[in-house]
Amino acid sequence: MHAKTAEFPPELQELAQAAKLLSHPARxxxxxxxxxxxxxxxxxxxxxxxxxxxxxxxxxxxxxNAGLIKGEISGLNVNYCLxxxxxxxxxAQFEALFALTIHDFPCNC
Length: 109
Description:
Helix content is 54%, strand content 13%. It has helices spanning 10-21, 25-36, 42-48, 53-65, 84-98, and strands spanning 40-41, 69-74, 77-82. The longest helix is centred in the C-terminal third of the chain and has 15 residues, at 84-98. The termini are far apart.
């Protein structure tokens, strides 16, 4: 048995996955922090959020697995930064969605 989502075009599946990934405020906060800096150390990110370091690490791992951020081990720390190439892809997908023409007509439902 396969998931019903497989019946949708790949571009819709990718956009839905990106939306799901960005549906948590902690992950949005992490993206905003990284966008404001050239790179960031995971400990610094944990200090900026009202979450435990372990929880922040889980969110960082999800963002990294999705390719939205990159991480590099430097001594005892992991330096994170945005994967700007992938971020541009996701941004374009959302821009295309929000650029849809919405017809304003009376709705009686």
